[in-house]
Write a structure and sequence with these properties.
The complex is a heterodimer. By secondary structure, chain A is of the alpha/beta class. Chain A contains 16 helices and 19 strands. In chain A, the strands form 5 sheets. Chain A has a 5-stranded parallel β-sheet with strand order 5-4-3-6-7. Chain A starts with 7 loop residues before the first helix and ends in a 10-residue tail after the last helix. In chain B, helix 3 links the parallel strand 2 and strand 3. The chains are: A alpha/beta, B alpha/beta.
């Protein structure tokens, strides 16, 4: 008898079951790749020491530094001490932990260092059909290549270090079917913001999303990563996109992708992964990409999002809504366009890959950022930085008046001192506009690299199509 | 992990929906390398003003809130970042349970692994709790029930294995380590 049609998620899940779930116990799920960083791993290594455990599979573990590290060149390369002592201690502790437990570390000065979710795909470590975890919620990014990838807490980081496995209940599935093609000036960031606007910030809870349809197939890999990255902002554990020729072309020849005969055999396995015709999802959502406008957030979670030409909604009697707008200093019913902007951040695991920097640079070329505005450009990885510099993008940003930094998470979460001053407005290509996310009292407007660049030029929230 | 069997306490209420882990513990406090001491920074930007002085009107700062061990919050508590520092901070402050109509996946997982009880209740129970800050609530882990001072009892879902771990104080790492033979057998098939 033919087996029942399966989704991409079902196939990856099933292939990684050490033991299936039962009423009494969760599944034991094998993890192919464990990425660790300086902020969510120290307490896990402490547990290994306390219990005299070793790292079960160092070859499946890769460490880097991204969250709390500086982005100023002198602090990264040793000309000046790391300004935040506790961050410097985290860096040293990760170095010590990796050396003691035999884990490969792409450390602060390593040429392949970068944001953990940028370097996994860039190195070719992120591959279709893999299970990938990291102590970071944006691990969902890696699903863009057809991996099952999700964020975990530090206790679970310890579980994976010690056993290469996690205890998991099988999540439900949600198909997001994207028809149509985006119009000019509308990016993958706008698409995923529109999807989150539809789902709400808790609409994906308990689910793994598979993004499907013509509007997804048309995305390049960087764009797919932007989409999957923000799955967690709808509450979903993971977002996945079935691998196709775009995926294979991206991976082939990357330093840690399979080569030769191993490439061919991997390819034949990967081609079996896409969801079978007739497979059932627990839920479905249909989105028309052709109807998506450039999007921007106005509130304090990513679901509070409107088209850039729109007005801030009115919700009389909703105290939480009023509180969010009070924090933002914005008024119901007013246009978001032309709101003054103090800071622009081009960076993060959402939008700091080479194509993001190219898009912003294209708009900034021959222009200057508005007087008094601060713009920080932080590449997603050292490789992205080198590639951008080889194309002269750094000159474009510097000549426009922006700052050009070493790679890292930087102002996305402001752990390293790269913060938006209290009360100021930032148009940010990152993923979270929570209160204080970019610094205490900071007011974040999430948008695409194009909208960020256009808003930097005008010093006001600007529809990028007006400058294209 | 200490076993969590039952709990009775007055509640503190934060009615906002979508309270994210950046509010529970702002990122600038994550440069620590230990689990302890984070209670002082719990809800830091809501609890303290820009000068570091407590905001007297914030729910946790009210005299009646002192010593309360159950937090009642709006829908989708704990969304956002995977930082386990969020349940560590809640526990270090003294909370033992969080009650909401929905609790975000990663936060819920992280809470269970540390003995912070995630309690998901229906709209009506939640609405009653939000309207009655300081209510004396009792929670029974074995029965999966929450009891209001009105005498009304509500059930909350708790997966069998999570319940077992809470009641016995067993941690999952021990369970996984006992499966090493099965894990190694799986690896030989790769």
């Amino acid at each position: 008898m033919a087996r029942a049609p399966q989704t991409l998620f079902d196939k990856v899940w099933q292939r990684h079951l050490v033991s299936p779930e039962s009423a009494a116990t969760p599944a034991v799920l094998y993890i192919d790749l464990h990425l660790i960083h300086e902020v969510t791993s120290p307490q896990a290594f402490t547990v290994l020491r306390e219990r005299a455990l070793r790292v079960h599979s160092p070859a499946r573990t890769l460490a880097t530094m991204d969250h709390s590290i500086p982005t100023l060149t002198a602090q990264v390369f040793g000309g000046a001490p790391i300004a935040i002592d506790s961050a410097a201690r985290q860096v040293r502790e990760l170095e010590v932990n990796c050396a003691e437990f035999g884990v490969e570390l792409l450390g602060l000065t390593h040429a392949q260092r970068g944001i953990v979710h940028v370097i996994g795909p860039e190195l070719g470590l992120t591959q279709p059909g893999k299970t990938i975890v990291c102590g970071d919620s944006h691990t969902s990014t890696h699903g863009a290549l057809g991996a099952l990838a999700f964020g975990i807490g530090t206790t679970e980081v310890g579980h994976v270090l010690a056993t290469q496995c996690l205890l998991q209940r099988k999540p439900r599935t949600l198909a997001v079917n994207v028809s149509g093609r985006r119009r000019a000036g509308v990016t993958a960031k706008d698409l995923i913001l529109a999807i989150i606007g539809r789902l709400g910030v808790s609409g994906g809870t308990g689910h793994v999303i598979e993004y499907r349809g013509e509007g997804v197939r048309a995305l390049d890999m960087d764009e797919r990563m932007t989409v999957c990255n923000m799955s967690i902002e709808a509450g979903a554990r993971a977002g996945m996109i079935a691998p196709d020729e775009t995926t294979y072309a991206y991976l082939q020849g990357r330093p840690r992708a399979p080569r030769g005969a191993a490439w061919e055999s991997a390819l034949s396995l990967w081609r079996e992964l896409p969801t079978d015709a007739g497979a059932q999802f627990d839920r479905e959502l249909n989105v028309d990409a052709a109807g998506v406008e450039p999007m921007i957030t106005y509130g304090t979670n990513p679901g509070m999002v409107i088209p850039i030409g729109g007005e801030i909604p009115r919700r009389p009697g909703d105290a939480a809504f009023a509180q969010a707008l009070a924090y933002m200093g914005l008024t119901p019913g007013e246009a978001i366009k032309d709101q003054p902007v103090n800071v622009v951040f081009l960076g993060s695991c959402t939008n700091a890959r080479l194509s993001d920097l190219r898009a912003a640079a294209q708009l900034l070329r021959g222009r200057r950022i508005a007087p008094g505005l601060t713009m920080l450009v932080v590449p997603g990885s050292q490789q992205v930085k080198r590639e951008a510099e080889a194309e002269g993008l750094d000159r474009v940003f510097l000549e426009a008046g922006a700052e050009w930094r070493e790679s890292g998470c930087s102002m996305c979460l402001g752990m390293n001192g790269d913060v938006v001053p209290r009360g100021q407005y930032a148009v940010s290509t990152s993923n979270r506009n929570f209160e204080g996310r970019q610094g205490a009292g900071a007011r974040t407007l999430l948008a695409s690299p194009l909208t960020a660049a256009a808003s930097a030029v005008r010093g006001r929230v600007t529809d990028p199509r007006e400058l294209m | 992990m200490e076993p969590v069997v039952s709990l009775a306490s007055r509640t503190v209420v934060l009615p906002a929906a979508n309270i994210d882990t950046d509010q529970i513990i702002p990122a600038r406090f994550l440069t620590t390398t230990t689990r302890s001491g984070l209670g002082a920074q719990l809800f830091a930007d809501w609890r303290y003003d820009a000068t570091g002085a407590p905001r007297p009107e914030f729910a946790l700062n009210l005299p009646a809130a002192q010593g309360c061990r159950i937090l009642v919050a709006g829908h989708n508590f704990g969304c956002g970042s995977s930082r386990e520092h969020a349940p560590w901070a809640l526990l270090d402050y003294g909370f033992c349970a969080v009650i909401s109509t929905q609790i975000a996946d990663i936060f819920r997982n992280n809470s269970l692994k540390n003995g912070l009880l995630p309690v998901i209740v229906d709209e009506a129970t939640s609405a009653w709790l939000i309207a009655h800050p300081g209510a004396l609530v009792s929670l029974d882990v074995a029965a999966g029930t929450l009891r209001l001072p009105t005498g009304v009892t509500a059930n909350f879902p708790l997966e069998a294995f999570a319940r077992h771990c809470l009641l016995t104080g067993v941690d999952e790492l021990g369970f996984l380590l006992e499966r090493r033979a099965a894990i190694e057998a799986y690896e030989r098939r790769l």
